[in-house]
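dumping this here before i forget
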Amino acid sequence: MAHSFSKPGISSQSTTRPHKRSTRTGNLPILVAVLLVPIVGMLALSVDVGYSMRKHDELQRAADLAALAGARHLVPDVVGNQDIELVRAKIQETAQSRLSDLDGFTVLDDDITIGRYDTATAYTNFTIKSNGVFDTVRVTLRRDESANNPLPLFFGGIFGIVESEAMATATAVVQRPVAIRPGADILPFAIPAEVWLNEDAETPLSLRSDGKIVNAKGQVLAKDWGTIDFGTRRNEAANLNYQVLNGLHESHMTELYRDGRIQIRSTIDSRQEIWVRAKAGLPQELTDTIPLIEEKARLVPLYTQSFGDGRELEFKIVDWVVVAFKRTSSQNSDDIMLEVRPSYLYDGLLRPCQDLCAEEGLIVGAYTSPVLID
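structure:
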């Protein structure tokens, strides 16, 4: 018979070790409750921050468009007048249309700066001057205590902040052009550069149909003016009349390019000298067309040299300016006298100069598409 033995004091049955009940699960709800406050606060803050950023972006876009609209209307009329009140009105109108969710959005007068930018500081400390022909608009749009009320916050009250201020600034300039594209408002008349650029010359000048130039004192000058033909030699009268009324056509540019007169088919660079065919004075074929462009600003070239004569006459074009023409009375009833004076022109088809510091090679009196600079 088998016997089992056990040591004294030790049970042969298995024993279970008692477990101490954990208190960690009881602390979790407390921890969650403690963390919930900052979590909710951060969520509320992110909502308000996102809202404020979106509203600031809207304000900035409105400021950009308002500055561009104002700059576009800075271009002087044909006699050089600038309607500053119209510029301010366009700024206000544009801002209100872009921020239509705010009743009667206001742009403060002190938040609109209109002037002429200093080319010497264009890329350093951009400076706006108050003299000369204005070409720059700076606009500040704000939502604060001074105008349009601060932005109301949804949950900022949790942190004791119930509103936020916002401000956006934009500066736009009307660019100055250096190249002429098809469709631009040219007039196929060439004036001697030395006559036009002479600081002592008095304007307006009078151009006789025979090519003679008469100054404001009635003196006949030594240099003649002439009609030039940009483009094909075929059907010249039709070309000239088209150019007087409509400016340059693509076919004219193509012909100039094929003749080697311009380097790029798409543009005439005002900084490059070109030779063009010419006739002294005003052709009879333009007699009926000229009255249709009276008192309208047009681009005309200035020439320094001439070569040949008759149908072989050519002018060396070195510069471009904006002028306005008007027919005047002449002692000879069969003669046409054109009064010409400096003028101003906005033409979006002109290619702008990319260098804001540039002073030379620009088309004098001409402006093209406005651009934001900051």
